[in-house]
């Protein structure tokens, strides 16, 4: 057999794959796209982080400014030592100096009652000792923050409070405040509008879908670009919102989540020093839009390149696959029994060798199939004869089993009839005896009762023993109940006689010949035997059988 040489498909196919450079091209595009996508992904995350850090820095500076102002105010002993009129004037001057964001300045005594308020001449007798801002300050915290809904604006406002300490004359006021050793003699409270924070949050334009929010240490909303979410009677609770929940669990940084509408978001959270949280979030579809566009471009290039190479491969494969198609068609025809089909042999490659082998195989299969056909015909004839014998044997066996079953059933019914007739006969005699004697028993009992009644009416006084016995046996009750008792016994014996008669009719032991039979009698006796099955059971009502017989003729049958 000649070697295929350069005409071998083993040489042609690797040569074609190497020339097409599809693997190398796709690998290069994939690696380049992957590295570029990672770079774009990191840049998008850095941009989100820088915006969150800028917001956090702005909020921290705002908080630090208010903290320093409050600490300086709390060192001023004149807040407590002056009278309420002078103190209110000082507070009003302070509020007017910062009226753009300071809506209230107040001083409370250690019991939690305001002694002066900048916005009100008349102080309501309200105790604020249960408020968070007061409890934090009175317990010694240098600064306490609480977010509330301002009654004046209906929007969130911040309450900053600090303790006012009694100054030690031996140390300066700055040292006294820093050491926190002085006695707390009051609390100063600033009510600060959050306009600046709201503007800072709203000014963070983060693409088309991004936004920034600010929450307190409990997850309550402080600032949001949508003012409707920060207005109302109480603060909006976002503690269960995924990025806020993530932040409250002492986690910060990048966090991706899916909201209730199935939209995926990427957020960046930062813990502030005042325990607030700054969160910047944007839809992932926008965050990674450049990455997606780059991947789409890379996929488009790969598709067009693959299509171009595919067209080239199809043109070349047409010439290579033609012999294989001819061989496949020949195999299909041979499988259908067309043994004469042969494949044209062209060239000296593997396909030519395969074609020659196929032609030899087809010839051998034709000869083998002819021998198998003859053997199969003989086998089918033999199997047919065996199957006919088996069917005849099975039919005979079924008839025998049916005859045996009928014989057994006949014997069972005969034995049952004999037993039922014997039982009915044995029961019938004593029942007739009882039923017949009940008449005399009723007569004798009635005579005895009448005798007792006559004796009682005679007026003769019986002995004490007889009187006592009458009371013990309850003679009056016996006189009333004995008639019912005899009636019940008579009904019971009649019932037994009817059942015995039904059993005798049912068994028909002494009537085995063909004769006219009244169907009504047979039906009534059967219903009598089934009477107990018709009575109601727990969960099932009584079954009432209504029999309406017409003038039925006698039927010739075996009873």
From TrEMBL:
It is found in: Cell membrane. CDD domains: HAMP, HisKA, PDC1_DGC_like, PDC2_MCP_like. Its EC number is 2.7.13.3. GO terms for molecular function: phosphorelay sensor kinase activity. It is an enzyme of class 2 (transferase). It is a multi-pass membrane protein. Its main location: membrane. It catalyses: ATP + protein L-histidine = ADP + protein N-phospho-L-histidine. InterPro entries: dCache_1, HAMP_dom, HisK_dim/P_dom, HisK_dim/P_sf, Sensor-like_sf. Residues 362-413 form a coiled coil. SUPFAM superfamilies: HAMP domain-like, Homodimeric domain of signal transducing histidine kinase, Sensory domain-like. Keywords: Cell membrane, Coiled coil, Membrane, Transmembrane, Transmembrane helix. GO terms for cellular component: plasma membrane. The chain crosses the membrane at residues 294-317. Pfam families: dCache_1 (PF02743), HAMP (PF00672), HisKA (PF00512). Residues 318-370 form the HAMP domain. This is histidine kinase.
